[in-house]
UniProtKB/TrEMBL annotation:
Residues 58-252, 343-501 form the IclR-ED domain. The lineage of its organism: Bacteria, Bacillati, Actinomycetota, Actinomycetes, Kitasatosporales. The keyword S-adenosyl-L-methionine does not apply. This is Helix-turn-helix domain-containing protein. Residues 1-64, 281-342 form the HTH iclR-type domain. The keyword DNA-binding applies. It comes from the Bacteria. InterPro entries: GAF-like_dom_sf, HTH_MetabolicPath_Reg, Tscrpt_reg_IclR_C, Tscrpt_reg_IclR_N, WH-like_DNA-bd_sf, WH_DNA-bd_sf.
Length: 511
């Protein structure tokens, strides 16, 4: 429970806090914070960066487990993306999360003035367009919970993704009226409820078997482009057409093929405990690994399956599931199965869902530069394939070194970065493609020697390349291959692992 609290406080803070700030935010002793962050760092969920604790991309595997088990982003995301392209407006998918709504997919337009919600963000129902649509199915206990939350937190400070409510605003009578209107019309509007200028129109996507909303699709804009009334007349018809296509896909979707469950987790946690001693909180590591037992084709699992997937004993798995149920991360069902709840997305997902490839690569490039005492860089090919553009890099403290400016462009054929990318994307350089790396020996500048390898996305395409540069007097060509290349391959593999995890349900821009 304390470890989950640390992840939630990091998420609310945007992904970075100092240990002392975590101590204040959680109310835990400093020694407890240190043990928890050391455990999370061992798991790859955070990075200890100088004086700060920083969320790392691997923590997204927790949210990925929920989204994979849910299936909706995989089944409906393409429709949302196509609608966003057609309307040139942001489109989102959201699910109900108690008396809030939580985003599970975002197709955001890249403009100077654009919607900044992220996958995993939680919003109060009364200040959104999807909220009244979900509330049409509320029972009296649901209304009572909503009233209690409003009484305890009238400004909505428990929802950090939206500005605090400054006035009484949407009182119970007004929200009840919006719910009844949504029940009658089958759609709902948000006319600047979250903040001035922001408007949205929403339509429920219904389960073909039950008729209940499984999620809500929304088109989001601002009043300089569309008024709330204009959303109804110009965008609502197209949104309804897209929702009809989503519901058709839900009706015809084949049963999911179960993916491979995680393996060796219990063995790994035991080995980590033996290596790190009291600095490794084994109960925290085992508890979090239980969440990764769920996924595509494994949305509802009995205790036996959770135990088998994780390698944990039934007693350990049961304690973890009961703890997660208490925290709202897991729901128990009468048939003795368990499912993940949207609240799993609270554990680090929102801040990282808007990351970029350079941001993922930078810590790994810094580590490689520190290890080899040579500058490192990442670059991609320009659209015409004639140049490379540097997107990230890390320098060293040497007197004679290579200064790499992010954004700089160089001829692709004269650099190791360009050659390894050209070899992957064209018939050129077949030898480089076969060996998997490229060398450049004093071709761009006298004395400058570099070696590069590709970075591949989930589809196996080389989307970027990373290199190490050196002076010819420091390393021979043979040394570049025997001493530098293995470390370079390891760094590229680390970047790829982060990219594959982060991009499973959210696009990762290359720049």
């Amino acid at each position: 429970m304390r470890g989950v609290g640390v992840l939630r406080r990091l998420t609310e803070a945007g992904g970075t806090l100092s240990p002392s700030a975590l101590e204040r935010a959680t109310g835990l002793a400093r020694s407890t914070v240190d043990r928890i962050t050391a455990t999370l760092a061992r798991m790859g969920y955070v990075r200890l960066d100088a004086r700060d604790v920083v969320l790392a991309p691997r923590v997204m595997e927790l949210g990925n487990a929920y989204l994979a088990a849910l299936r909706l982003p995989a089944l409906l995301g393409a429709h949302a993306d196509a609608l966003a392209d057609e309307l040139d407006e942001s489109v989102s998918l959201a699910v109900a999360d108690l008396d809030g709504i939580r985003f599970i997919h975002q197709a955001t337009r890249r403009r100077a003035l654009s919607v900044s919600f992220r996958i995993g963000d939680l919003l109060p129902v009364e200040r959104t367009a999807p909220g009244p649509l979900f509330a049409t199915g509320w029972t009296e206990p649901d209304w009572a919970r909503w009233r209690a939350r409003r009484a305890a937190d009238p400004q909505g400070t428990a929802f950090p993704a939206v500005p605090p409510q400054q006035t009484a605003g949407d009182d119970e009578a007004a929200f009840t009226e919006r719910v009844e209107r949504a029940r009658r019309d089958g759609w709902a509007l948000d006319d600047q409820l979250i903040e001035p200028g922001l408007v949205a129109v929403s339509v429920p996507v219904r389960d073909p078997a039950t008729g209940r909303p499984v999620c809500v699709a929304s088109v989001v804009s601002h009043t300089s482009r569309h008024s709330a009334a204009d959303l109804r007349t110009s965008l609502l018809p197209r949104l309804r057409t897209a929702v009809a296509a989503m519901e058709a896909d839900l009706r015809t979707a084949p049963p999911p093929e179960p993916g491979p469950p995680p393996s060796g987790l219990a063995t790994w946690t035991t080995a980590s405990k033996h290596e790190l001693g009291r600095d490794f909180v084994e109960s925290l590591a085992r508890g979090l690994t239980v969440l990764t037992a769920f996924g595509a084709g494994r949305s509802a699992l009995p205790l036996t399956e959770v135990s088998r997937a994780t390698g944990l004993s039934r007693a350990t798995a049961r304690r973890a599931l009961l703890t997660h149920e208490h925290l709202g991360l897991v729901r128990a069902h009468p048939d003795r199965t368990f499912t993940l709840t949207p609240r799993v997305l609270d554990l680090g997902f929102p801040p990282l869902s808007r990351t970029t490839l350079p941001h993922l690569a930078e810590p790994h490039l810094r580590a490689l530069a520190a290890r080899l005492h040579e500058p490192t860089a990442m670059a991609l090919l320009t659209e015409d394939g004639t140049e490379i553009q540097y997107t990230a890099g890390a320098g060293t403290s040497r007197v004679l070194t290579v200064h790499i400016t992010v954004g700089a462009r160089l001829p692709a054929t004269a650099t190791s970065l360009g050659r390894v990318l050209l070899a992957d994307n064209s018939p050129a350089f077949p030898e480089i493609r076969a060996q998997g790396y490229a060398l450049a020996d004093e071709e761009l500048e006298s004395g400058l020697r570099s070696i590069a390898v590709p970075v591949r996305d989930r589809a196996g395409r080389a989307v970027a390349a990373v290199c190490v540069a050196t002076h010819a007097a420091r390393r021979t060509l043979e040394s570049c291959v025997t001493d530098v290349l293995p470390a370079l391959h390891t760094t590229a593999a680390h970047i790829q692992t982060d990219l594959h995890t982060a991009s499973r349900f959210t696009p990762i821009p290359p720049t």
